[in-house]
Amino acid sequence: MPPSVPDADLRGPPIAEHRTAAPGVDVRAVLAALAEPRRADIMRLLERRHRSQRGLSTELGMSQPLLSHHLKVLREAALIDSTVCDRVKVYLLRPETLKSLADRLAVMAEAAAETCKIKPCRPAPPPEHGASPTLSGWPHRRTPLASVV
Predict the structure, then answer these.
(1) Sign, Cα dihedral of 28, 34, 37, 38
(2) Range of the structural domain that residue 80 is part of
């Protein structure tokens, strides 16, 4: 059983500093970048093959300026990279960042599985004979409905 820790320490170290994160990879920025549906669509297209900005724009039905913005966010999160192929700039995924994210999520899943094995609270004591517990735990007197009306 893990040692007891104060509530302030339950969050653990920042995700970007976790031991499984690759150097320079900000996992929070990666998750934030992937949270936007259009950027997730870009990632899905790039997982199949590299594409040019024009190709992405056409396939997604997105304007060039909007696509440029999303590509910039994905580049800053180290999720994609670009290279020049036949004088055309193409975008491709960065597998090391995705591997780092997968490793971090695996560690998180293992920790969550261990945490679920621990009972968070001790069971409440049974109520006294004939008494009905209230929210505060103190028994209250039952008043017949006829006497209230």
Answers:
(1) positive
(2) 7-117
Its pTM surpasses 0.85? no
* Structural domain count, the chain: 1
Position 84 in a domain: yes
Residue 85 dihedral angles phi and psi, to the nearest 5°: -130, 115
Residue 61 in any domain: the answer is yes
The per-residue pLDDT string of the chain (149 residues; one tens digit each, 9 = 90 and over) reads 444 433 333 333 443 333 444 555 788 899 999 999 999 999 999 999 999 999 999 999 999 999 999 999 999 999 999 999 889 999 999 999 999 899 988 988 898 888 877 766 666 777 776 655 555 555 555 555 555 55
CA angle 119, 125, 129 (to 5 degrees): 155
